[in-house]
Amino acid sequence: MAHNVIIIGSGPAGYTAAIYLGRAGLDPVMVTGALTPGGQLVNTTEVENFPGFPEGVMGPELMDNMRAQAKRFGTEFIADDVTAIESAGSDDAPLYRLALSDGETLETRAVIIATGSNFRKLGVPGEVELSGHGVSYCATCDGFFFRDKPIVVVGGGDSAFEEALFLTRFGSSVTLIHRRDEFRASQIMVDRAKENPKLTLLTNTVVTEIHGTETAPAAPALSLGGLALNPKPQVNVSGVSLKNTVTGETAELETAAVFVAIGHTPATDFAASVASRDEDGYIIVDGASTRTSTPGIFAAGDCVDRVYRQAISAAGMGCRAALDAQEYLSE
């Protein structure tokens, strides 16, 4: 049996699309991902800039609420990954076959790709362990939490400079670290950074390790159903180890936060056969719509958007994708 529409991805774009399609009576199916349904927000602590939550909301809670709302309107969830999409119909009756990582296949009349993108990581010790505890990939999301504290930004492009300049509103100081002596950022961004007294540019330097310090003792041990639970102490970023790429000299720098801004990798390889992509892998859509190069294939969220990358803009794009798909299915 062919489904009306399958949504690939379960972040704000995917859940919003599911809500709209479910309310339209199209019985959407969502392939959420096998390991990390909910997108990047499940790894975020407090979200203060999503409308409707004046006191803020935890990222996982926001995603749980979106999922519950999509489920309320009849969305079916499949916890798996899509590995490929291929055409399985005719010009008169387009149909698409999705291959899943468990070997199963699904057929559908329309597809919405909402797989988002992944932050490129430094790949140094401490980065994973301290993610959400001082290591961040979004200044607008987390900058506020480091008011009057020293901050490090890693990167050399416009995004890194934008984040560094934004973070000077909060941090006592901001140090932007770049591995080369020349920046990829536009000259106007570099000039603004040099003119900002709170911002220091550190070139020919790489971060080799991120360190953490215990900031709160562990909670008392608990027993649940006979199982002993030993909570771990709270550990937050306290500093970084640095290495000069020219001289090989090493140094230590105290900081309360490390913002990594070295780019994104859109999760779109599985869709290469049905959707045109740019040189960086972002799916190309038609103008302000969500239509891709293949009729019946739509895309929304961070797998399309290389500029804004916010939960609210992804949700808005998910709405547009649902309306575009609804119009396509009614033709």
Automatic annotation (TrEMBL):
Please name the InterPro entries in this protein's record.
FAD/NAD-bd_sf, FAD/NAD-binding_dom, Ferredoxin-NADP_redctase_2, Pyr_nucl-diS_OxRdtase_2_AS
Gene source species: Bifidobacterium cebidarum
Substrates-to-products reaction catalysed: [thioredoxin]-dithiol + NADP(+) = [thioredoxin]-disulfide + NADPH + H(+)
Annotated FAD/NAD(P)-binding domain ranges read 4-318
Signal peptide (from-to): none
One GO MF term: thioredoxin-disulfide reductase (NADPH) activity
Give the residue spans that cross the bilayer. Answer: none
Q: Which UniProt keywords apply?
A: Disulfide bond, FAD, Flavoprotein, Oxidoreductase, Redox-active center
List the protein's name. Answer: Thioredoxin reductase
**Which residue spans adopt a coiled-coil conformation according to this UniProt entry?**
none
